[in-house]
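WARN no homologs supplied; continuing
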Amino acid sequence: MTSPLRDELEGILGSRGLAALSAARGGLRIYVPSMVRDAHWLAETVGLEAAQRLAFRFGGCRLHVPTSRSVGRDARDARIRELRRQGLPVARIAAETGVSERTAWLVVRDLPA
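OK structure emitted
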């Protein structure tokens, strides 16, 4: 399940920006400056516009950056849920997403039947 912060970061940075930030600083707390210029590591990592949007929302704060592993898992789990909502059987979902049937069942267990 995704966290509200992770969802907000993805909304601000986009999925590629969040993946880049997670790859660079995942698992760490970062300080987000109130103003970001093009030479700042954050701008170099996610792009200047995305870094400026992040600074507008979180400038002056410290954030815990989700790990790249958790970002990938959240995307995988969302895909598994979507396939199940489309009516695919769990065995096929497991084959298409590269997880075991048990993992697929654990992800979809809370979806309505």
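The first strand starts at residue 29 and ends at 32.
OK
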